[in-house]
Design goal:
CATH topology of the largest domain: D-Maltodextrin-Binding Protein, domain 2
CATH class of the largest domain: Alpha Beta
Shape: globular
Order of helices and strands: HHEHEHEHEEEHHEHEHEEHHEEH
Helix content: 25-40%
Number of domains: 2
Distance between the termini: 36 Å
Strand content: 15-25%
CATH superfamily of the largest domain: Periplasmic binding protein-like II
Radius of gyration: 20 Å
Number of strands: 12
Number of helices: 12
Structural class: alpha/beta
Length: about 325
Amino acid sequence: MRRLGTVLTVLVVLVGALPGFGQGDPRVPVARREGRVVVYGTMPADNFEVLAKIYEGRYGVPVEYWRAPPDRLVDRALAESRAGRALFDVVIAPSPVMRILKQQGLFAPYTSPAYEPFPAAARDRDGVLSPPYRLNLYTALYNPRLVRASEAPRTYGDLLDPRWRGRLVLADPTLNLGSAQWLLNLRRVLRAEWRGFVERLAAQAGGLEESILTIPSKVVAGEYALGIALLSYVHLFGRQGAPIDYVRLDPMLAEAHHAAVGTRAPHPQAARLFVDTLMSRAALLALAQAGEFVLLPGIYPPIRDADRLRVTVMEDYDEETYRRAREEWAPLFRRR
């Protein structure tokens, strides 16, 4: 991974040994009395379990996790907040989700001791969101039993080859926030060719999913030759013996992920300790081994060529930009 954007490159270089958090912390007995911590997020459950074990091992506080696609997470968190009965303590999710929820007042300021090694430019100016701790890279996945590596696409333009028409699946950008962010950010890569690319990609799609979560299994099962999804799935499915590989797109677009404590967190001290744990070096190293791209210098997940990818961190957009894009794309991306 060579380029992560100006701020994140500085972050990767500077993050070193993160401070530890011991049993002498006066918040620990309070967190134990609170009894649990409830986390909403988009991280795969298997990888989150790595975090939960570290946290529970440190503090003896049980972790409850609810995982959902970005749009569903936003809907549930907003609904709970508007009803005056928020059930979550912490949210860990992609940057667009976190900024939407932040704007709606769902998060409280918290500056973890674990943020200290991160440069000021990587921190939220309002002290609400954590510095970015991991990246989700978007690429095209394929089943090597059906598509030989020599025949697989190599560039964004190759995704439009007629041989993939009707054989490509992606998350519907009129429904899925991550997919919409990816398409909007491709404008910076494709420039004058961007609009034509979006139109032709829509025509290529043989299937549109509500969530990216379902795409890898469809590629592995051979329902589609290609699927636009997250690179981390190569490790998640591959370690189970599933046939899956990925296209080395250049650059590969990535979404940054943050954490935040809920304004009305039912278990506030347990929530703060969870954020401390998440941002610790031990947790980030464990997540990297589980297949995540974390922001630690020289640390890569066990995915072939992970250290050779050129990565561009995606920009965030406001709700109005997403709304206009979805209206424009609606005639193109009709549900198959």
